[in-house]
Amino acid sequence: MTEPSPLEIGFDRPGPASLRAAFFTVWFVDLVATILFFTVPYAYELNPMTVFLYDLLGIVGVVFAALVYAGFVIGIGHVLSRPFDVGFVLTVVVLYTLFASNNVVLLISREPLLAPIVP
């Protein structure tokens, strides 16, 4: 009988493969939309860390920021125990879907899907 290494203890993949694929799909759509935000004059990125990295490194900074965000999600999902890991990744997929949809609609129609309500 072999002892599991410290890295194997509590480090499992969060959720089914389809949920992980959904995360990477909406993450990629959001990444592409965010890159386009820096190339069109009528849209802008709100995340200050992404803007900072864009100012520092250009488009590579935007990709780096997206990779860091995905790394945090994956890392947290691996550390959480079931069923919390599945719930966490599912929540992130729903939020990314909402944000990516808003970004795509903004890029296509020049109007955000989720406009702030200001009285």
UniProtKB/TrEMBL annotation:
<keyword id="KW-0812">Transmembrane</keyword>
<feature type="transmembrane region" description="Helical">
    <location>
        <begin position="56"/>
        <end position="80"/>
    </location>
</feature>
<keyword id="KW-1133">Transmembrane helix</keyword>
<feature type="transmembrane region" description="Helical">
    <location>
        <begin position="21"/>
        <end position="44"/>
    </location>
</feature>
<protein>
    <recommendedName>
        <fullName>DUF5658 domain-containing protein</fullName>
    </recommendedName>
</protein>
<keyword id="KW-0472">Membrane</keyword>
<feature type="transmembrane region" description="Helical">
    <location>
        <begin position="87"/>
        <end position="109"/>
    </location>
</feature>
